[in-house]
């Protein structure tokens, strides 16, 4: 997992002064003495319950294991099996759809909303309402969608008023994933709009005044002022989106009030695949395979992060 | 001046989405007060009377009551613990800029990019070995671990913003670093600690993957698991939508309350360091 969410360390601007003045030395020395007692609880917990498990997952991914018996060495065969498993390729494809299609749409919508909200009355209120869905467990939206889009549900009732007699079969297995992407976009847009708004608010007004004097149209202002100056934040948003889209799980689990024990495989994401392989209903757990699938999702995050940062790298703009 | 019509359309759209979001929330709440048959016949009708029967059902036979208590307990304890061990670490990482502290900070930041499913199998195997599967302690430990990268990241940024002058002054007055941390730094950083707690609480409240994999006994499951189980349980004889909506409102209520009460703090925390 190379690369980080930000290039700067948080608050680097306030870095400790290098001067070791007379008055500061004892403070510094005592701080050094207390460094490990302060840091260790967090580092140990993190090491034992976060970093070590990642290593263990990588190791387990090389074995065939049901969790009870002995591990059987498999080398990279688990990864080869994943490659050949249509369910897994669908899961990866779905994850990529959320990542790319959902991401681009969310980004365009967030930018549009930011521009509108900027000069709107009651913008804080509107922003709060748009933001709220990201605090709600996606299970709720999945379950509500099962009702709202059911054949006699509210959506079809409204469509019926509008004269649509043969509405699409919303919850058929072919359509359900499009609804899932739409829901992801809806919940995420408010969040990213909020981030972008904060970034755009930092851009000094006089730049826009100058652009206006020069006769720049709204579109030119967006292209030549807003986007370049908010670029760093846009990059961070892209990375955040990557991480969060690889994690999508709740929404899939219950979407449409899922009709059988498991959601239809057409809608699976990598997270879902890992969960079902590790905790299947009515078959033997495949812990090695699940670990391999989890590692693939980790690699996806790493790869996208590196590529995004490379593609989106710009010279920093001072203003 | 050609931007006026575009702006008009944009404004209308934004307000439409805002109103739709609010109506959806209101509709979920109103529907939770109605009977299932009635809901399907007239999905938009207001509740005929304030019926709390769905809530009684959800709370007892639906299992949402016990789950709510589990959720409150697990979320509160794990958030407090996460903040309690992150705060001192973040303070030191913000103040001592050595190679070691830089490497530690970096490793926490990299943890932000690890999707939870990577830890699922290893944590299950590990906690099963020490008999902590299907136990509150196990789930709390997991939530603390999952919370660490973000909490440390958030608080490191926060402590970096606390001016050094404070400590220098306290040091001249003869305060030791421990006393200083407790009496000078923590009070000043209270806002950051509350934000960290809130965000972790929200995260733990909504966490589903680990809760569903680790918690099996009905009296220990958390709310998201209760909702999933409820839907599964009802599969055979048709879903009792009224009760399910009541259950969802139980999940939603604390989020609505927290957001109404401390919305700006939550928004700021979740977008901190990104919008700068």
Helical content of chain A stands at 55-70%
Q: Give the H and E element order of chain A.
A: HEEHHHHHHHHHHHH
Q: Main sheet of chain A? A: 2 strands, antiparallel
| Radius of gyration of chain B (Å) | 23 Å
Give a short summary of the structure:
The complex is a heterodimer of chains A (319) and B (276). Chain A has 13 helices and two strands, in the order αββαααααααααααα.
Explain what this protein looks like in three dimensions:
The complex is a heterodimer of chains A (319) and B (276). The two termini of chain A are 33 Å apart. Chain A has 319 residues and is mostly helical. Chain A has helices at 25-60, 77-84, 86-118, 123-131, 138-148, 154-161, 173-201, 205-213, 218-229, 231-246, 250-254, 270-278, 287-311, and strands at residues 63-64, 72-73. Chain A is globular and about 75 Å long. Chain B has 13 helices and no strands. With 276 residues, chain B is mainly alpha-helical. In chain B, 76% of the residues lie in helices and 0% in strands. In chain B, helix 4 runs antiparallel to helix 5 and helix 5 crosses helix 7 (136-160). At the A-B interface, helix 1, helix 3, helix 4, helix 5 and helix 7 of A face helix 1, helix 4, helix 5, helix 6 and helix 7 of B.
Task: Give me the secondary-structure topology.
The complex is a heterodimer of chains A (319) and B (276).
Chain A: H1 25-60, E1 63-64, E2 72-73, H2 77-84, H3 86-118, H4 123-131, H5 138-148, H6 154-161, H7 173-201, H8 205-213, H9 218-229, H10 231-246, H11 250-254, H12 270-278, H13 287-311
Antiparallel strand pairs in A: 1-2
Helix pairs in contact in A: 2-13, 3-7, 3-10, 3-12, 4-7, 10-13, 12-13
Chain B: H1 3-31, H2 36-41, H3 53-59, H4 64-95, H5 99-111, H6 117-129, H7 136-160, H8 164-172, H9 177-188, H10 190-206, H11 209-214, H12 223-233, H13 241-271
Helix pairs in contact in B: 3-13, 4-5, 4-7, 4-10, 4-12, 5-7, 7-10, 8-9, 10-13, 12-13
């Amino acid at each position: 997992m190379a690369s980080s969410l930000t290039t700067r360390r948080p608050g680097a601007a306030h870095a400790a002064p290098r001067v070791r003045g007379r008055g500061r030395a004892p403070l510094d020395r005592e701080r050094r003495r207390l460094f490990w007692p302060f840091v260790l609880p967090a580092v140990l917990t993190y090491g034992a319950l976060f970093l070590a498990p990642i290593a263990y997952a990588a190791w387990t991914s090389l074995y065939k294991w049901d969790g009870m018996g002995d591990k059987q060495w498999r080398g990279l065969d688990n990864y080869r099996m994943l490659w050949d498993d249509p369910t897994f390729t669908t899961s990866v494809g779905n994850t990529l759809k959320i990542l790319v299609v959902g991401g681009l749409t969310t980004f365009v919508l967030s930018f549009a909303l930011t521009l509108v909200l900027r000069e709107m009355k009651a913008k804080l209120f509107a922003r709060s309402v748009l933001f709220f869905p990201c605090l709600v467990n996606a299970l709720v939206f999945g379950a509500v969608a099962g009702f709202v889009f059911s054949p006699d549900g509210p959506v079809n009732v409204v469509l019926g008023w509008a004269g649509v007699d043969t509405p699409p079969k919303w919850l058929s297995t072919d359509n359900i994933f499009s609804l899932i992407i739409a829901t992801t976009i809806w919940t995420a847009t408010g969040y990213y709009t909020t981030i972008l708004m904060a970034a755009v608010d930092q851009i000094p007004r006089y730049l826009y005044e100058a652009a206006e004097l020069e006769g720049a149209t709204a579109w030119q202002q967006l292209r030549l002022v807003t986007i370049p100056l908010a670029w760093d934040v846009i990059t961070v948003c892209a990375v955040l989106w990557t991480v969060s889209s690889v994690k999508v799980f709740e929404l899939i689990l219950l979407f449409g009030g899922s009709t059988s024990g498991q959601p239809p495989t057409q809608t699976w994401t990598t997270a879902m695949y890992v969960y079902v392989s590790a905790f299947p209903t009515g078959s033997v757990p495949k812990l090695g395979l699940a670990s391999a699938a989890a590692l693939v999702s980790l690699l996806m995050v790493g790869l996208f992060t590196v590529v995004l940062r490379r593609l989106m790298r710009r010279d920093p703009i001072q203003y | 001046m050609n931007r006026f019509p575009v702006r008009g359309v944009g404004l209308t759209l934004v307000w439409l989405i805002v109103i739709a979001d609010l109506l959806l929330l209101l509709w979920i709440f109103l529907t939770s007060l109605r009977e299932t048959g009635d809901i399907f016949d007239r999905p938009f009708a207001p509740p005929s009377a304030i019926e709390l029967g769905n809530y009684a059902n959800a709370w007892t036979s639906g299992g949402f009551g016990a789950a709510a208590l589990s959720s409150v307990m697990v979320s509160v304890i794990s958030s407090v613990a996460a903040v309690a061990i992150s705060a001192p670490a973040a303070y030191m990482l913000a103040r001592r800029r050595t190679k070691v502290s830089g490497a530690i900070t970096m490793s926490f930041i990299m943890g932000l990019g690890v999707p939870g499913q990577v830890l699922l199998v290893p944590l299950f195997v590990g906690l099963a070995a020490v008999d902590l599967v299907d136990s509150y302690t196990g789930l709390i430990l997991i939530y603390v671990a999952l919370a660490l990268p973000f909490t440390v990241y958030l608080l490191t940024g926060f402590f970096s913003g606390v001016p050094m002058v404070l400590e220098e002054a306290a040091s001249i007055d003869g305060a030791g670093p421990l006393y200083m941390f407790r009496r000078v730094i923590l009070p000043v950083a209270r806002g950051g600690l509350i934000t960290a707690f809130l965000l972790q609480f929200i995260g733990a409240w909504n966490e589903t993957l680990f809760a569903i994999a680790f918690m099996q006994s009905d009296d220990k499951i958390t709310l998201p698991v209760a909702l999933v189980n409820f839907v599964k349980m009802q599969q055979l004889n048709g879903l009792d939508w009224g009760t399910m909506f009541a259950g969802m409102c139980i999940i939603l209520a604390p989020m609505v309350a927290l957001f109404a009460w401390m919305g700006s703090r939550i928004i700021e925390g979740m977008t901190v360091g990104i919008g700068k």
